[in-house]
Every structure is written in structure tokens, then in C-alpha cells.
Design goal:
InterPro entries: Rof-like_sf, Rof/RNase_P-like
Number of domains: 1
Order of helices and strands: HEEEEEE
Strand order of the largest sheet: 4-3-2-1-5-6
Distance between the termini: 19 Å
Radius of gyration: 13 Å
Helix content: 10-25%
CATH architecture: Roll
Number of strands: 6
Number of helices: 1
Strand content: over 45%
CATH topology: SH3 type barrels
Oligomer: single chain
Length: about 90
């Protein structure tokens, strides 16, 4: 199991949700494989089945909208790809 995100990183995710800022997020699954979620919109952070989860919106290859829940303990990095202040980035 991955280590939970720090409080500071969680605060940055909450700021990204409030400011409606798109993020690029890298997650590590149970097998150790890394997966990138590029240019996604975080919309909620909360508890789901006993885990802290980040809900994101993204699009599929057909142009449809996908709603995905990511376990925040699986997030190893994220960054807002804009020039706005404050800078949103972990680690």
C-alpha cells in the first residue's frame, strides 16, 4: 500500500478543485506501474469505501466525459499546467 498524501498536498488538491484548475496526475497502482492522467479536472475529494479519493473528470477517445475516482494514496505526483498563482505542484 502506498503512503497517504501529506496534508499540504491534500490542501493543494482542494485549492485546484475550488479554482477549477486542470492537473496532470501520476498514480502508482498495486503492481508498481505508473499511470498518467493528463489535463484532468479535479471535482471532489472525500472518503469512499474507507479510502480518501479524488474524483476527476477527463475525456475518452470518443470525446465522451469520464468520471474517475483515484485513491489519493496512489497519487505520487501532480501539477497544474498553467501559469496561475499559487503554483500547484507535488512533490
Amino acid at each position: 500500500m502506498n503512503k497517504p498524501l501529506s496534508c499540504g498536498a491534500q490542501d493543494q488538491l482542494e485549492a485546484a478543485i475550488i479554482q477549477r484548475r486542470r492537473l496532470s496526475i501520476t498514480c502508482r497502482d498495486a503492481a508498481g506501474e505508473e499511470h498518467d492522467h493528463v489535463n484532468v479536472l479535479p471535482v471532489d475529494i472525500g472518503s469512499h469505501d474507507g479510502h480518501e479519493c479524488l474524483t476527476i473528470l477527463t475525456s475518452d477517445n470518443a470525446g465522451g466525459i469520464l468520471k474517475i475516482q483515484l485513491n489519493t494514496a496512489d497519487i505520487i505526483a501532480f501539477q497544474a499546467r498553467d501559469l496561475m498563482d499559487p503554483t500547484i505542484r507535488h512533490p
